[in-house]
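Work Package 3 (structural annotation) set out to generate three-dimensional models for the target panel prioritized at the project kickoff. During this period the team completed the workflow that converts sequence records into discrete structure tokens, so that structures can be stored uniformly alongside our sequence database. As a representative example, we reproduce one entry of 190 residues exactly as it appears in the project archive.
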Amino acid sequence: MKIYTKTGDKGTTALFGGTRVPKHHIRIESYGTVDELNSHIGLIRDQDINTHYKELLIHVQDRLFTVGAILATDPDKSIFKNGRERLNIPKISSENIELLEKKIDIMNEALPPMTHFVLPGGHQTVSFCHIARCVCRRAERLATALNDISPVDSNTLIYLNRLSDYLFVLARKLSFDLKANEIKWIPEKH
């Protein structure tokens, strides 16, 4: 399989289904940011963390490829006129969302209650989680902006929202597991 196609040399790229759009199109920004997020999650997974976190992160990376495929598809090209799917695009299910919620709840049970916002950092692995969380929030913002122009499956949007919550709680849980200093944000008084 060739890596270069020479079809994007004039600033356009093809969506799944064949529609060509400018490389700066909001749809490209959306799935490109999901790809960036997936790389950051790979970086977290490469850290010295518990195997059960790594296994879930592999599952999340798989789901992010699904999110990317959904965002990379022109909705007008994915459905036949009779309402059947033309392209076999996987979906984000409510079970995918519920899995993240369940893992968030399990981690939260082991953590002291939050009384303040926390400053990102304290350990390199924790910082990677916070970076991934921020990229996930950006992916969510871009996907919701895309949704204003062209409908995006609601479970896809919900999944990105829950994933950013998961990454935040994972950062806190890893701080706890690694005995890293979690610094509370207490606004300075002037």
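The chain has a mean pLDDT of 87.
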